[in-house]
Protein backbone atom coordinates (compact mmCIF):
# COMPACT_ATOMS: atom_id res chain seq x y z
CA UNK A 1 0.00 0.00 0.00
CA UNK A 2 1.23 3.50 -0.79
CA UNK A 3 2.26 5.89 1.96
CA UNK A 4 -0.69 7.64 3.53
CA UNK A 5 -0.75 11.44 3.59
CA UNK A 6 -1.49 13.01 6.95
CA UNK A 7 -4.60 15.13 6.76
CA UNK A 8 -5.30 18.42 8.45
CA UNK A 9 -5.76 18.28 12.19
CA UNK A 10 -9.38 17.74 13.13
CA UNK A 11 -11.44 20.72 14.16
CA UNK A 12 -11.73 21.34 17.92
CA UNK A 13 -15.35 20.11 17.94
CA UNK A 14 -14.31 16.72 16.59
CA UNK A 15 -13.44 13.97 19.07
CA UNK A 16 -9.70 13.46 19.52
CA UNK A 17 -9.63 11.13 22.54
CA UNK A 18 -8.32 7.63 21.99
CA UNK A 19 -11.06 5.05 21.57
CA UNK A 20 -10.74 1.31 22.21
CA UNK A 21 -12.71 -1.42 20.47
CA UNK A 22 -13.17 -4.88 21.98
CA UNK A 23 -13.80 -7.42 19.22
CA UNK A 24 -15.64 -10.38 20.70
CA UNK A 25 -14.87 -13.24 18.31
CA UNK A 26 -17.54 -15.92 18.43
CA UNK A 27 -16.77 -19.44 17.28
CA UNK A 28 -16.78 -19.62 13.45
CA UNK A 29 -17.07 -15.86 13.01
CA UNK A 30 -16.86 -14.39 9.52
CA UNK A 31 -13.41 -13.03 8.68
CA UNK A 32 -14.63 -10.56 6.06
CA UNK A 33 -16.83 -8.67 8.52
CA UNK A 34 -14.09 -8.65 11.16
CA UNK A 35 -11.40 -7.46 8.74
CA UNK A 36 -13.76 -4.84 7.35
CA UNK A 37 -14.10 -3.36 10.83
CA UNK A 38 -10.51 -3.50 12.09
CA UNK A 39 -8.66 -2.35 8.96
CA UNK A 40 -10.31 1.09 8.75
CA UNK A 41 -9.20 1.70 12.33
CA UNK A 42 -5.60 0.78 11.51
CA UNK A 43 -5.58 3.03 8.47
CA UNK A 44 -7.23 5.88 10.37
CA UNK A 45 -4.33 5.81 12.84
CA UNK A 46 -1.88 6.17 9.95
CA UNK A 47 -3.89 8.98 8.40
CA UNK A 48 -4.07 10.85 11.70
CA UNK A 49 -0.44 10.14 12.62
CA UNK A 50 -1.49 9.00 16.09
CA UNK A 51 -3.04 6.05 17.90
CA UNK A 52 -6.56 7.45 17.84
CA UNK A 53 -7.91 3.90 17.92
CA UNK A 54 -6.80 0.77 19.70
CA UNK A 55 -8.35 -2.69 19.87
CA UNK A 56 -8.18 -6.02 21.62
CA UNK A 57 -9.48 -9.43 20.60
CA UNK A 58 -11.68 -11.20 23.13
CA UNK A 59 -13.29 -14.61 23.25
CA UNK A 60 -14.94 -16.98 25.66
CA UNK A 61 -11.86 -19.17 26.19
CA UNK A 62 -9.45 -16.21 26.26
CA UNK A 63 -6.88 -18.11 24.20
CA UNK A 64 -7.87 -18.60 20.59
CA UNK A 65 -10.81 -18.11 18.21
CA UNK A 66 -11.37 -19.81 14.87
CA UNK A 67 -13.29 -18.20 12.05
CA UNK A 68 -15.50 -19.88 9.46
CA UNK A 69 -12.68 -20.31 6.93
CA UNK A 70 -10.56 -22.21 9.45
CA UNK A 71 -8.03 -19.49 10.31
CA UNK A 72 -7.31 -19.00 14.01
CA UNK A 73 -6.61 -15.82 15.95
CA UNK A 74 -4.76 -15.45 19.24
CA UNK A 75 -6.92 -13.64 21.78
CA UNK A 76 -5.85 -10.83 24.09
CA UNK A 77 -8.44 -11.51 26.75
CA UNK A 78 -11.36 -13.63 27.87
CA UNK A 79 -14.65 -12.38 29.26
CA UNK A 80 -13.06 -10.00 31.70
CA UNK A 81 -14.30 -6.62 32.81
CA UNK A 82 -13.75 -3.72 30.43
CA UNK A 83 -14.24 0.04 30.83
CA UNK A 84 -17.46 1.89 30.13
CA UNK A 85 -15.64 3.90 27.45
CA UNK A 86 -14.95 0.76 25.38
CA UNK A 87 -16.98 -0.27 22.34
CA UNK A 88 -17.77 -3.98 22.04
CA UNK A 89 -18.27 -5.42 18.56
CA UNK A 90 -19.59 -9.00 18.50
CA UNK A 91 -18.28 -10.79 15.42
CA UNK A 92 -20.67 -13.56 14.37
CA UNK A 93 -20.74 -16.05 11.54
CA UNK A 94 -22.22 -19.48 10.96
CA UNK A 95 -24.00 -21.43 13.72
CA UNK A 96 -24.27 -18.23 15.73
CA UNK A 97 -27.04 -19.65 17.90
CA UNK A 98 -24.69 -22.37 19.12
CA UNK A 99 -21.87 -19.85 19.64
CA UNK A 100 -24.16 -17.61 21.70
CA UNK A 101 -23.46 -19.19 25.06
CA UNK A 102 -24.63 -18.19 28.55
CA UNK A 103 -21.20 -16.84 29.56
CA UNK A 104 -21.16 -14.63 26.43
CA UNK A 105 -24.69 -13.35 27.09
CA UNK A 106 -23.97 -12.67 30.75
CA UNK A 107 -20.78 -10.77 29.84
CA UNK A 108 -22.59 -8.61 27.29
CA UNK A 109 -25.39 -7.80 29.72
CA UNK A 110 -22.90 -6.88 32.44
CA UNK A 111 -20.87 -4.59 30.20
CA UNK A 112 -24.05 -2.99 28.83
CA UNK A 113 -25.17 -2.20 32.38
CA UNK A 114 -21.81 -0.57 32.98
CA UNK A 115 -22.33 1.69 29.95
CA UNK A 116 -20.28 0.16 27.13
CA UNK A 117 -21.43 0.71 23.57
CA UNK A 118 -22.23 -2.66 21.97
CA UNK A 119 -22.71 -3.76 18.37
CA UNK A 120 -23.01 -6.88 16.26
CA UNK A 121 -21.22 -7.53 12.98
CA UNK A 122 -22.91 -9.90 10.53
CA UNK A 123 -24.87 -12.44 12.61
CA UNK A 124 -23.38 -10.93 15.77
CA UNK A 125 -26.61 -8.91 15.93
CA UNK A 126 -28.34 -12.18 16.87
CA UNK A 127 -26.16 -12.48 19.98
CA UNK A 128 -26.72 -8.86 20.97
CA UNK A 129 -30.48 -9.30 20.52
CA UNK A 130 -30.43 -12.57 22.48
CA UNK A 131 -28.88 -10.65 25.37
CA UNK A 132 -31.89 -8.32 25.23
CA UNK A 133 -29.76 -5.34 24.25
CA UNK A 134 -31.61 -4.47 21.04
CA UNK A 135 -35.15 -4.38 22.44
CA UNK A 136 -36.83 -1.22 21.20
CA UNK A 137 -33.83 -0.44 19.00
CA UNK A 138 -33.38 -0.33 15.26
CA UNK A 139 -31.03 -3.03 13.97
CA UNK A 140 -30.01 -5.05 10.94
CA UNK A 141 -28.63 -8.50 10.18
CA UNK A 142 -27.59 -10.40 7.05
CA UNK A 143 -30.58 -10.66 4.68
CA UNK A 144 -30.54 -14.46 4.77
CA UNK A 145 -31.09 -14.41 8.54
CA UNK A 146 -33.83 -11.79 8.60
CA UNK A 147 -36.79 -14.18 8.51
CA UNK A 148 -35.63 -16.15 11.54
CA UNK A 149 -34.57 -12.99 13.39
CA UNK A 150 -38.03 -11.45 12.93
CA UNK A 151 -39.68 -14.56 14.33
CA UNK A 152 -37.51 -14.63 17.46
CA UNK A 153 -37.03 -10.97 18.33
CA UNK A 154 -40.34 -9.15 18.01
CA UNK A 155 -39.16 -6.24 20.16
CA UNK A 156 -36.35 -5.32 17.75
CA UNK A 157 -37.08 -2.89 14.91
CA UNK A 158 -35.35 -4.83 12.15
CA UNK A 159 -34.37 -2.96 8.99
CA UNK A 160 -32.80 -4.00 5.70
CA UNK A 161 -30.07 -1.36 5.94
CA UNK A 162 -26.40 -2.23 5.46
CA UNK A 163 -25.71 -0.89 8.96
CA UNK A 164 -27.60 0.77 11.79
CA UNK A 165 -26.51 3.09 14.58
CA UNK A 166 -29.13 3.59 17.27
CA UNK A 167 -27.75 5.32 20.33
CA UNK A 168 -24.95 3.18 21.75
CA UNK A 169 -26.12 0.10 19.83
CA UNK A 170 -24.97 -0.75 16.33
CA UNK A 171 -25.25 -3.59 13.85
CA UNK A 172 -24.18 -4.46 10.34
CA UNK A 173 -25.54 -6.80 7.68
CA UNK A 174 -22.23 -8.60 7.19
CA UNK A 175 -19.66 -8.63 4.42
CA UNK A 176 -18.29 -5.21 3.52
CA UNK A 177 -20.98 -3.42 5.55
CA UNK A 178 -18.48 -3.29 8.43
CA UNK A 179 -16.39 -0.87 6.39
CA UNK A 180 -19.34 1.51 6.00
CA UNK A 181 -20.06 1.43 9.75
CA UNK A 182 -16.46 2.15 10.68
CA UNK A 183 -16.17 4.97 8.14
CA UNK A 184 -19.28 6.50 9.70
CA UNK A 185 -17.71 6.27 13.16
CA UNK A 186 -14.39 7.68 11.95
CA UNK A 187 -16.18 10.58 10.25
CA UNK A 188 -18.08 11.31 13.47
CA UNK A 189 -14.89 11.17 15.54
CA UNK A 190 -12.43 12.93 13.24
CA UNK A 191 -14.30 14.44 10.31
CA UNK A 192 -15.35 13.51 6.79
CA UNK A 193 -11.93 14.28 5.32
CA UNK A 194 -10.24 11.64 7.43
CA UNK A 195 -12.95 9.07 6.66
CA UNK A 196 -12.72 9.77 2.93
CA UNK A 197 -8.95 9.35 3.01
CA UNK A 198 -9.36 6.00 4.77
CA UNK A 199 -11.89 4.96 2.11
CA UNK A 200 -9.46 5.93 -0.65
CA UNK A 201 -6.74 3.81 0.93
CA UNK A 202 -9.15 0.87 0.98
CA UNK A 203 -9.99 1.48 -2.72
CA UNK A 204 -13.54 1.86 -1.42
CA UNK A 205 -15.09 4.24 -3.90
CA UNK A 206 -18.76 4.08 -2.89
CA UNK A 207 -19.37 4.70 0.80
CA UNK A 208 -22.84 3.58 1.83
CA UNK A 209 -25.03 5.15 4.50
CA UNK A 210 -27.57 3.66 6.87
CA UNK A 211 -30.20 4.47 4.24
CA UNK A 212 -28.72 1.98 1.77
CA UNK A 213 -30.23 -1.49 1.67
CA UNK A 214 -28.38 -4.80 1.64
CA UNK A 215 -29.64 -6.54 -1.45
CA UNK A 216 -29.49 -5.58 -5.09
CA UNK A 217 -32.58 -3.94 -6.52
CA UNK A 218 -35.15 -6.32 -7.95
CA UNK A 219 -34.35 -5.39 -11.58
CA UNK A 220 -30.65 -6.02 -11.00
CA UNK A 221 -31.30 -9.24 -9.10
CA UNK A 222 -33.53 -10.80 -11.74
CA UNK A 223 -31.65 -9.29 -14.67
CA UNK A 224 -34.77 -7.64 -16.06
CA UNK A 225 -35.72 -3.97 -16.09
CA UNK A 226 -39.49 -3.98 -16.37
CA UNK A 227 -41.26 -1.68 -13.88
CA UNK A 228 -44.50 -3.66 -13.60
CA UNK A 229 -42.67 -6.96 -13.20
CA UNK A 230 -40.56 -5.42 -10.42
CA UNK A 231 -43.68 -4.09 -8.70
CA UNK A 232 -45.33 -7.51 -8.74
CA UNK A 233 -42.24 -9.28 -7.38
CA UNK A 234 -41.93 -6.69 -4.63
CA UNK A 235 -45.55 -7.30 -3.62
CA UNK A 236 -44.90 -11.04 -3.61
CA UNK A 237 -41.84 -10.65 -1.36
CA UNK A 238 -43.78 -8.44 1.05
CA UNK A 239 -46.77 -10.79 1.27
CA UNK A 240 -45.42 -14.27 1.98
CA UNK A 241 -47.64 -15.14 4.92
CA UNK A 242 -50.82 -14.01 3.14
CA UNK A 243 -50.23 -14.61 -0.58
CA UNK A 244 -52.02 -12.41 -3.11
CA UNK A 245 -53.75 -14.10 -6.02
CA UNK A 246 -52.33 -13.58 -9.55
CA UNK A 247 -55.56 -11.84 -10.52
CA UNK A 248 -55.22 -9.31 -7.69
CA UNK A 249 -51.51 -8.79 -8.44
CA UNK A 250 -52.33 -8.10 -12.07
CA UNK A 251 -55.11 -5.67 -11.15
CA UNK A 252 -52.84 -3.72 -8.79
CA UNK A 253 -50.35 -2.99 -11.58
CA UNK A 254 -53.01 -2.28 -14.18
CA UNK A 255 -52.89 -5.35 -16.39
CA UNK A 256 -54.89 -8.49 -17.05
CA UNK A 257 -54.06 -11.87 -15.55
CA UNK A 258 -53.16 -13.14 -19.01
CA UNK A 259 -50.76 -10.24 -19.56
CA UNK A 260 -49.12 -10.98 -16.21
CA UNK A 261 -48.74 -14.64 -17.16
CA UNK A 262 -47.07 -13.68 -20.45
CA UNK A 263 -44.75 -11.24 -18.66
CA UNK A 264 -43.49 -13.91 -16.24
CA UNK A 265 -43.15 -16.51 -18.99
CA UNK A 266 -41.19 -14.14 -21.20
CA UNK A 267 -38.72 -12.86 -18.60
CA UNK A 268 -38.58 -15.55 -15.90
CA UNK A 269 -39.66 -18.68 -17.77
CA UNK A 270 -42.24 -19.60 -15.17
CA UNK A 271 -45.76 -18.63 -14.17
CA UNK A 272 -46.45 -16.00 -11.48
CA UNK A 273 -47.90 -18.77 -9.32
CA UNK A 274 -44.71 -20.88 -9.61
CA UNK A 275 -42.44 -17.90 -8.92
CA UNK A 276 -44.50 -16.96 -5.85
CA UNK A 277 -44.38 -20.55 -4.62
CA UNK A 278 -40.58 -20.60 -4.93
CA UNK A 279 -40.32 -17.43 -2.85
CA UNK A 280 -42.52 -18.95 -0.12
CA UNK A 281 -40.60 -22.23 -0.11
CA UNK A 282 -37.28 -20.37 0.08
CA UNK A 283 -38.47 -18.54 3.19
CA UNK A 284 -39.75 -21.82 4.63
CA UNK A 285 -36.33 -23.43 4.13
CA UNK A 286 -34.63 -20.53 5.89
CA UNK A 287 -36.99 -20.86 8.86
CA UNK A 288 -36.52 -24.62 9.06
CA UNK A 289 -32.74 -24.30 9.07
CA UNK A 290 -32.41 -21.22 11.27
CA UNK A 291 -35.14 -21.51 13.91
CA UNK A 292 -36.76 -24.05 16.17
CA UNK A 293 -40.25 -23.17 14.90
CA UNK A 294 -42.48 -26.19 14.44
CA UNK A 295 -43.10 -27.35 10.89
CA UNK A 296 -46.75 -26.35 11.30
CA UNK A 297 -45.82 -22.80 12.29
CA UNK A 298 -43.32 -22.58 9.43
CA UNK A 299 -46.08 -23.64 7.04
CA UNK A 300 -48.44 -20.96 8.38
CA UNK A 301 -45.74 -18.28 8.26
CA UNK A 302 -45.22 -19.02 4.59
CA UNK A 303 -48.85 -18.97 3.56
CA UNK A 304 -49.70 -22.70 3.56
CA UNK A 305 -53.10 -23.62 4.96
CA UNK A 306 -52.10 -27.14 6.01
CA UNK A 307 -48.88 -29.03 6.87
CA UNK A 308 -49.72 -31.72 4.32
CA UNK A 309 -49.93 -29.23 1.45
CA UNK A 310 -46.73 -27.58 2.64
CA UNK A 311 -44.91 -30.91 2.82
CA UNK A 312 -46.12 -31.89 -0.67
CA UNK A 313 -44.94 -28.62 -2.23
CA UNK A 314 -41.65 -28.71 -0.31
CA UNK A 315 -40.87 -32.24 -1.46
CA UNK A 316 -41.69 -31.38 -5.08
CA UNK A 317 -39.27 -28.44 -5.03
CA UNK A 318 -36.42 -29.60 -2.76
CA UNK A 319 -36.74 -33.40 -3.20
CA UNK A 320 -37.03 -33.90 0.55
CA UNK A 321 -39.61 -33.29 3.28
CA UNK A 322 -39.50 -30.39 5.73
CA UNK A 323 -38.90 -32.87 8.58
CA UNK A 324 -35.95 -34.50 6.82
CA UNK A 325 -34.55 -31.09 5.88
CA UNK A 326 -34.40 -30.12 9.52
CA UNK A 327 -33.01 -33.50 10.56
CA UNK A 328 -30.28 -33.35 7.94
CA UNK A 329 -29.04 -30.03 9.24
CA UNK A 330 -28.99 -31.06 12.89
CA UNK A 331 -29.91 -28.73 15.74
CA UNK A 332 -31.81 -25.73 14.40
CA UNK A 333 -29.81 -22.53 14.52
CA UNK A 334 -28.90 -19.48 12.54
CA UNK A 335 -26.63 -21.47 10.29
CA UNK A 336 -26.62 -20.12 6.78
CA UNK A 337 -24.72 -17.26 5.22
CA UNK A 338 -24.06 -16.31 1.63
CA UNK A 339 -20.72 -14.62 2.22
CATH architecture of the largest domain: 3-Layer(aba) Sandwich
Strand order of the largest sheet: 2-1-5-6-10-9
Q: What is the third-level CATH name, the topology of the largest domain?
A: Rossmann fold
Q: CA-to-CA gap between the ends?
A: 25 Å
Order of SSEs: EHEEEEHHEHEHEEEHHHHHHHHHH
Description:
With 339 residues, the chain is an alpha/beta fold. It has two domains: 19-201, 3-Layer(aba) Sandwich (Rossmann fold), CATH 3.40.50.880; 218-328, Arc Repressor Mutant, subunit A. 45% of the residues lie in helices and 12% in strands. It has 15 helices and ten strands. The chain has helices spanning 31-48, 96-99, 102-113, 124-130, 146-152, 177-190, 192-201, 218-222, 227-238, 246-252, 257-268, 272-290, 295-301, 307-318, 322-328; strands at 19-25, 53-58, 64-66, 72-74, 87-91, 117-121, 138-139, 157-158, 163-166, 169-172. Helix 6 (177-190) runs antiparallel to helix 7 (192-201).
Task: Looking at this protein, list some descriptive labels.
Arc Repressor Mutant, subunit A; six-stranded mixed β-sheet; 339 residues; two-stranded antiparallel ribbon; 45% helix; alpha/beta; 2 domains; Rossmann fold
Amino acid sequence: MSSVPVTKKPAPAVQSRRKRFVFLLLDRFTMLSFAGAIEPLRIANRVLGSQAYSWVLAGENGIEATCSNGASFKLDMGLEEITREDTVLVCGGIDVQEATTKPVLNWLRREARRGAAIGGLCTGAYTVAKAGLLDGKRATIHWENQDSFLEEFEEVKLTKSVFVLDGNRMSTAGGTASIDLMLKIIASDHGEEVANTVADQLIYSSIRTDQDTQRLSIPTRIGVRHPKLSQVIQMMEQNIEDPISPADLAERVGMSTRQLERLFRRYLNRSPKRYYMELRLQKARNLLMQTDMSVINVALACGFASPSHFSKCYRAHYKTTPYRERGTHGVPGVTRLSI
